[in-house]
Amino acid sequence: MTVEWILTPERIYGAMGLVAAYAGMCWGIGSRVRRQRLTDEAQSQVSRGDARAPAVLVAYASQTGQAEALARATAKMLVDGGLQVRLLPVEKLTAELLQEHAHSLWMLSTTGEGDAPDHALGFVRQLKAAQPVLTRHQSLVLALGDREYQEFCAFGVQVHEWLQACGARSDLICVDNMDGPSLQSWRAQVGQMRQGLLGECAPDQELDADWLQAPVSIPFVLRRRRLLNPGSQGGALYLLEWTPQSGELPQWESGDLVSLCVPADPERPRDYSIASVTADGSLQLLVRQSTRADGSPGLASQWLCCGMAEGDVLPLTLREHRGFRLGDNAGRPLILIGNGSGLAGLLSHIRARVQHDCNDQWLLFGERSPRHDAVFGDQLAAWVEQGRLARLDQAWSRNGKDSRYVQDLLRSHAEEVRQWVARGAAIYVSGSLHGMGQGVHLTLQAVLGEAKVAELLGSGRYRRDVY
Ligand SMILES: Cc1cc2nc3c(=O)[nH]c(=O)nc-3n(C[C@H](O)[C@H](O)[C@H](O)COP(=O)(O)OP(=O)(O)OC[C@H]3O[C@@H](n4cnc5c(N)ncnc54)[C@H](O)[C@@H]3O)c2cc1C
Ligand SMILES: Cc1cc2nc3c(=O)[nH]c(=O)nc-3n(C[C@H](O)[C@H](O)[C@H](O)COP(=O)(O)O)c2cc1C
User: Fold this and answer.
1) Disulfide-capable partner of 211 in 57, 77, 175, 187 (CB 3.0 to 4.6 Å)?
2) Mutate to test the pocket of ligand 2, among 72, 110, 182, 430 (most ligand atoms within 8 A of CB)
3) Is residue 22 lining ligand 2, measured as CB closer than 6 Å?
4) Strand 55-61 relative to strand 84-89: parallel, antiparallel, unpaired?
């Protein structure tokens, strides 16, 4: 078989943001006569045009945006290939919708430890509770995951098995860290499904071979690198400031990510939360120098913190992180909770809000010791003094008798947390998954009740950027 284009994980990974942005820009602008059109309607996209064309459901569940971008790219490819497409996040699916459509495509990533993405948790409850009859249904599931995790592609597999239990004919493709061969196989199977649907009416042309475009990596110059926690008992934490080699800073939103590859591992990109907003004039990252279980240094963080020099150039790919953006929470009070390098994602939100004179935000932040790890201490104190941060609470885990974690802070301020949520606050959590992320989640459940936490997660008022 001739492979018309070469997919490497690096290319695919970075391409996702571009595909999403490009698709968002292009869809809905005038369509050619024979093409169906995709329009954004709230969170679901519905194809319009020739109602006689067979319709396919395209559903996604995504934590950091890759499955969503793949779903958009797949939907666009199908629409261009002559089909009607209904694209939507899984929580918008109903038994009726599934029964109305004879074909569905699913793009589902796994997060946490074998968990469904946050926005999909309502669907998971629904899935456990109901088993609609889908004996006439054919589905194709693309499960995104990473073999380094014990529960490889667990959520995609769970949905695939549920579809089979409902009587559907379901096929499954598991993707390891966006590996190219699996994505090529996905495109081939989607092509077969389309051929089967259109039969002799299928237009002559093949499905778009360029449905995944090369990533747009922008060469950035490392302008300044500063150690933020000299003397810390924990890993060194650095602030890295970058500007594009071209001089023209691209646009991003608070909450977004940067994806990058380092010379020691050019195939597997790493994500970093952007700590600044465009108005700051530079793209800033907070990078923790990590150590692997065997004591060797983490490849990317080692390169970023010690390998490359100020003035060196590295291609960076900006990735939209819709699940952690302010989105429709922009006007709400914010409870920002995090630890360590997680401050990056929280800082970008505070900076974005300060820029818009929005000061109704409470930061609860955990680090090791007040002596060595009071990172951004002066900036945070200044924001409190200027009334830019309504409230700041810090927890130090290595502080003698006063040692505590950020979840302990939440527990001791339970009443205020309830009051903030009652007046509409959204909750953003950023930092380590183990320890902090899980501890905060359990504490929120204890403080607010499990049902309320599930409701906040489902409605996007509780967002997580934990890793
Ligand atoms: C959404 C998101 C946002 C993030 N934001 C930030 C941020 O703002 N700041 C930040 O510092 N980090 C952030 N990270 C983490 C970051 O992406 C990297 O995972 C981190 O820097 C470690 O990468 P590394 O290359 O240094 O370590 P790696 O070399 O990838 O090693 C890290 C771990 O991977 C395992 N591992 C992988 N390969 C091997 C191997 N061959 N042998 C042994 N063990 C292996 C080990 O468990 C090891 O501890 C974020 C991650 C995500 C997903
Ligand atoms: C915090 C975190 C937890 C993850 N947990 C799992 C897991 O349990 N099983 C798995 O197969 N992949 C896991 N992954 C890998 C993701 O599924 C994979 O990177 C996927 O491409 C992300 O897609 P998304 O951007 O749509 O969320 C995890 C990734 C992260 C960052």
Assistant:
1) 77
2) 110
3) no
4) parallel
- Centroid of ligand 1 to alpha carbon of 278 (angstroms): 25
Alpha carbon of 461 to ligand 1 centroid (Å)? 27
Predicted local distance difference test score (pLDDT) of residue 51: 64
Instruction: Give the Å distance between the CA of 337 and the centre of ligand 2.
Output: 21
What's the confidence (pLDDT) of residue 48? 45
Q: What architecture does CATH give domain 9-201?
A: 3-Layer(aba) Sandwich (3.40)
Distance 153 CA to ligand 2 centre (A): 8
Give the residue, by CA position, lying nearest to ligand 2 atom 22.
Answer: 109
Per the CB < 8 A criterion, the answer to whether 396 and 329 are in contact is: no
Q: How much is the pLDDT for 24?
A: 32
Look at residue 310 in the predicted model and tell me its pLDDT: 98
Ranges for all domains in the chain classified under CATH 3.40.50.360: 9-201
- Give the closest residue (by CA) to ligand 1 atom 19: 270
Which pair of tokens denotes residue 440? 């905060």
pLDDT one-digit tens code per residue, 296-318: 999 999 999 999 999 999 999 99
Choose the CATH number for 326-466 among 3.40.50.720, 3.20.20.10, 3.40.50.80, 3.40.50.300. Answer: 3.40.50.80
**pTM for the model:** 0.89
pLDDT tens digits along 49-107: 456 778 999 999 999 999 999 999 999 989 888 899 999 999 999 999 999 999 999 99
3-class SS string, 384-409? HHCCCCCEEEEEECCCHHHCCCHHHH
Mutate to test the pocket of ligand 2, among 64, 146, 148, 319 (most ligand atoms within 8 A of CB): 146
| Closest to 433 measured CA to CA, from 111, 146, 153, 155 | 111
Q: Is the dihedral of CA 345, 346, 347, 348 positive or negative?
A: positive
For the chain, residues with pLDDT lower than 50 are 1-46, 48-49
Per-residue pLDDT at 50: 56
pLDDT score for 195? 87
pLDDT at 130: 87
Q: How far is the CA of 115 from the centre of ligand 2 (A)?
A: 9
CATH (one of 2.40.30.10, 1.10.10.10, 2.40.10.10, 3.30.720.10) for 218-319:
2.40.30.10
Instruction: Count Cα atoms within 13 angstroms, Cβ side, for 110.
Output: 27
Please check whether residue 156 is in contact with residue 164, taking contact to mean a CB–CB distance below 8 angstroms: no
Ligand 2 proximity of 60 Cβ (cutoff 6 Å): no
